[in-house]
Design a protein that fits this description.
With 83 residues, the protein is α+β, with helices and mostly antiparallel strands. Helix content is 23%, strand content 20%. It has three helices and five strands; from the N terminus they run E-H-E-E-E-H-E-H. A three-stranded antiparallel sheet has the order 4-1-5. Strands 2-3 form a two-stranded antiparallel ribbon. Bound molecules: iron/sulfur cluster. Pfam families: Fer4_15 (PF13459).
Length: 83
């Protein structure tokens, strides 16, 4: 990644919290896939293409149980073990 270039948005889904409202899949169907009971899984492993970022941000805001969170770059990077 070049200097000044924006890092892609990464998200995490906690399926143990998801209540199957399905709002996320309405806002960003290319990122959230619903199963037959209305529970979601992430398409693409949590990396969000720039063209889908707007819908994903809407999904984050509208998820009633906050099951979706945005990962900050430091949280996404491998952690160094404490000495
Ligand atoms: S909006 Fe939230 S609760 Fe609803 S399906 Fe998506 S992650 Fe689950």
């Amino acid at each position: 990644m070049r200097r000044g270039e924006r890092q892609p948005v990464k998200i995490k889904l906690d399926r143990t919290v998801c209540d199957g409202f399905g709002l996320c899949a309405v806002h960003a169907p290319e990122t959230f896939s619903l199963d037959e009971w209305g529970y979601v899984s992430l398409v693409g492993g949590g990396s969000v293409a720039p063209e889908h970022e707007r819908g994903v941000r809407r999904a984050l805001l509208d998820c009633p149980v906050h099951a979706i969170v945005e990962l900050r770059p430091a949280e996404d990077a491998p952690r160094e073990l404490a000495r």
